[in-house]
UniProtKB/TrEMBL annotation:
Residues 70-82 have a biased composition (Polar residues). GO terms for molecular function: phosphatidylinositol-4,5-bisphosphate 5-phosphatase activity. This is Inositol polyphosphate-related phosphatase domain-containing protein. One of its GO terms (biological process) is phosphatidylinositol dephosphorylation. Residues 23-35 have a biased composition (Low complexity). It comes from Rhodofomes roseus. Residues 504-829 form the Inositol polyphosphate-related phosphatase domain. The lineage of its organism: Eukaryota, Fungi, Dikarya, Basidiomycota, Agaricomycotina. Residues 1-126 are annotated as: Disordered.
Amino acid sequence: MRASHSPRPSIPPPRPPPRHKSSVQAPSPSLASVASPPPLPARRGTATPVDEPPRRFPPRMHDGEASLQPHANTAPPTTSPTIDRKTFGHHPPPPTRTIGLNDKLPAARRQASGSSSESEEEEFKKVELLPDMTRSSRRPPVVDCHNYSEFHIHVPAYTSTVAVSGHTVAVAHHHHIKIYDLSVSEAPVWNIDSRDAGLDKLNGFKVTAMEFRPTLNATDRGAFLWLGCKDGTLLELDIRSGTIAAAKPVAHAHAVTHMFRHARAMVTMDDAGKVLVFAPEPDSTDDVHLVYTQPRVVRIADKQEFAKLLGGQLWTSTRDPNGGGSVASTSRGPIVRVYDVFSPGSTGRSLLPTEHLGAVTSGTILPSQPDKVFLGHEGGHVSIWQLVTKDGIPMCEEVVKVSTSDVLSLEGVNDRLWAGGRSGMISAFDVVPRPWVATNCWQAHTKLPVLKLTVDTWSIERLGRLTVYSIGRDEKLRFWDGLLGTQWVDQELIKREAEFSTFRAVKVLVVSWNLDSAKPETLTGTPENINFLNDALKSVDDPDIIAFGFQELIDLESRKMAAKTVLLGGKNKTPDGAISQKVSTSYKKWYDRLVLAVKMAMPPDEPYTVIHTENLVGLFSCIFVKNTERISLKHVAITTIKRGMGGRYGNKGGIVARFVIDDTSICFINCHLAAGQHHVRQRNADVAAMLEEKSVFPESDAVEEPLAYVNGGDGSMVLDHEVVFMNGDMNYRIEHRRDFVAGAIKAGEIESLLAYDQLLREMKNNRAFRLRSFMEGPITFAPTYKYDRRSNEYDTSEKARLHYLRYEANVSDHRPISAAFRMTVKSVQHEARAHVKGEVIARWKQHERALLEACHQFFVDQAMI
């Protein structure tokens, strides 16, 4: 193989070219260019060939070459072509910049965007503003007033319309009208095809709106159904015979979109803004007749997507800006228009909410607050409008965030505001406290949107009950008890629990410690380290349940250790509950040490058994139960909830365990919440997510109502359990200067720090805080964080948390704590409970009659019947 090389030149190489700084050339515009604007471009016409010199392009450079400025000792070219840059009016051309070889390139432009922490803070703030749902009853308020179930009624979503009166249900879909009588059969009593109706020029009409016509004769109520059609025709159907009793062809020039009943009048509306008011004469005893009653015409804005009679006035809104709907996001909106259609000559009023909201989807009036209108919006808000004002114009007085998704349907029922959302849930809110409290929240339509919520105002008269019906995207119609009688009975049974239950005491010991990745073999040296586990286990005599909850058992900053836990943590338990060898040895070592400590500290004739072990990226829970109690355990389960990185990572989160003793359900949460002195909202959001997480555990398999659980729950959520213990590194801090805190600790004035405790502040002042219903023992010890290891010297900012006792084991930067509880478990005597329940139901019937009378009077006052 041959090789050749060039000899090194004897003269030094030329110096590199000097770097040239950016140069901006902005030639001054000529006087002519300032005095007169640039000429307009010529109109396009027939192309005229013009002699144009050929374009000259610079030679293409090969890879690795660069365009260089001439050397200082190199003569410039004799001719330098001048490039005339086009000017725009009197504005100079954009600046130019020349970049030499090895010059630093300018920084790339970055799009302005808010920091993730700011956006997350806004999300956490929204969570705080949501209604408190921690104690809502999840039991569906089913109603049993029909002889046959409504489950077989099919309601095509978005393309059908429904009207209900007592047992009668009418469903119209395009050409088909089905009439059901649930007192007779679950099958339709009439199945009408409009193409076979036998009406001249009206065959094949498509129904777009329906409502039952009012009648003075009580026996005729719910017998005549008005139909609005796509071509603007109005029809009256006698549901007793299944025939068309009257027709008003092309009463509207466009499709009829809405139909309302108000006292003895009927109101129809089309999408072009034409409203027809059919009202009898004031002194007439005749009912409204479709043919003989002359309607009065009212003009409103067209294409109104939302329309409803509220307080005797027609409230409308649309998302179309041209039709008076939502406006630009920088302004308040959407526009709500209110019309007094029953007062001739009156004009509509345009209203704006106090802030920009999503489109209006629904509206209602609460019987308990008849002077206010509640409007539901996309985006999860409810706007509240005061009807009684000085000028008589409704005014928006408040906007409440009730959901993270859209409010699709809204209805005022008794003293509760019912709202349906996209997840298929219906929530009933108590709107008096701030924030609102969700007293009921149940799955109504299998995780699909609740499209409609309506009170059947005639149900009191025809059924002796107040029924509400909902229609979902699952194309089902469901009936509900508007007075929530099941919840009333449950609450009364709790008050009389002592009459059908026996009780006994159970002792619970909870030990919590942030280990800061300390190993059990480091518990050496001082007596506090050596005796820590024994001292904690003997802090209460003869505990029946022992729950250890550790945090940061592994080094969370070690990626290798965290990844190993994530990959293998789900396969950590053997059938007997022991820790698998595949998981990090740190968990196995602590598990073995805890088993040994319990065995050594407790009497040998009262052995304990591990019923729960679980880990989650540093979290570790191990729960022991005395063998004599183990035989009474039921529904044993354990799971994890991740809260780190938006719920994708388990460095923050909780381990949730539960079981049932006798007829009392118990839940343990070992958690590690968001860190940071000022991240209170993130910690609050972590708590809310764990307490309100759906389907944490499998549902109870009880055939009858699950007596061990509360709030109408089935045991699948944390707060379904009667007793909940929460421990862990919750990271709430002391909100004060370090020198003040250190001085108070040194002086032994621990109580003076409690006023600055973030957790106690949230429990006292934040009405939306999900731990407000929890109780914490008196704090009589110094803050447990943060220490230098193997010392009693505080390191950085401190926090105080959890109950009763702290220990001085110093192998971690935290100090361990423990809490002992004496709790009561119940055992239900089923026959005695059934007897008491019968008495409670009898009392409810009396109370229900009083509520029905009040609701009936409200419907009369509002001209809804």
